[in-house]
Amino acid sequence: MKLTILGCYAATPRTFTNPTSQVLEIKNHLFLIDCGEGTQVQLRKNKIKFSKINHIFISHLHGDHFYGLVGLVSTFMLLNRTSDLHIYGPKGIKEIITLQLRLSNSWTNFGLFFHELESNESEIIFEDKKVVVRTIPLKHRVYTNGFLFQEKIGERKLNVAAVQDYEIENCY
User: Fold this and answer.
1) Cβ–Cβ < 8 Å for 40, 68
2) What is the average pLDDT across 60-68?
3) Under a CB-based contact definition with an 8 Å cutoff, are residues 87 and 115 in contact?
4) What is the DSSP-derived secondary structure letter of residue 117?
5) By the 8 A CB rule, do 135 and 146 touch?
6) Beta bridge partners of 85
7) Helix, strand or coil for residue 162?
8) Which of 84, 112, 122, 141 lies deepest, with the highest CB count within 10 Å?
C-alpha cells in the first residue's frame, strides 16, 4: 500500500502547496481521493499514470476538494481514454460535472459512472476480490465522507519445505 499526497493544507492553490488530493496504490489499483485544482500537474510531477486511475472518491463538495475533477475528466478524453471511470461523491457531483461537460460541448468517449452518496451511515461503496472501500460519515458544513480502504486477506502460501526443517511433531 502506498499513499502519495498530491496536495493538502491549502483551500487555495499556492506556490508551495496544492489543494487536497491523494493517490492510494493498493493491490494493483490506483484510487484518487479528492481532486483539487492542480491535481493533474501533481500527477505528472509524481509520474503517476492517468490511465491506471479508474475510481475517484470525492469527500465533499467544497471547491478545494473537486474543482480539478472536470479538467481531469476532460484530459482523460483528450488522451483517448477508453476504460470506464467511476466517481464516488456526494449527491450533486454528477450534476456539477455533467453540466460543465455539456456546456463546454465536451463529452467522454469512455464510460463515466457516478455513484452519488447521501447515507449518514457507513456503507460499502466499492468491492472486488482484493479491496473493499467503505464510507466514514463526517461532520462538516456540508455532507462529507472519509473513506476506509481495506485489503482483503488473500490466499496464503505455505512453504512446506521450510516447515519440515523444524521437525515439528504432531501436536494432537
Assistant:
1) yes
2) 96
3) yes
4) E
5) yes
6) 112
7) helix
8) 112
**pLDDT of 172:** 52
pLDDT of residue 158: 76
Handedness of CA 115, 134, 23, 59 (dihedral sign): positive
Catalytic residue among 34, 64, 128, 165: 64
Cβ neighbour number for residue 18 with a 10 Å cutoff = 24
| Whole-number Å distance between alpha carbons of 124 and 135 | 7
CA-angle at 4, arms to 3 and 6, nearest 5°: 140
Dist. CA 51–CA 95, nearest whole Å: 24
Give the residue with greater pLDDT, 63 vs 167: 63
Straight-line distance from the first to the last Cα atom of the chain, in angstroms, rounded to the nearest whole number: 39
Whether 64 sits among the annotated catalytic residues: the reply is yes
Phi, psi values for residue 46, rounded to 5°? -90, 5
Task: Tell me 106's DSSP state.
Answer: -
15 vs 82 pLDDT, higher one: 82
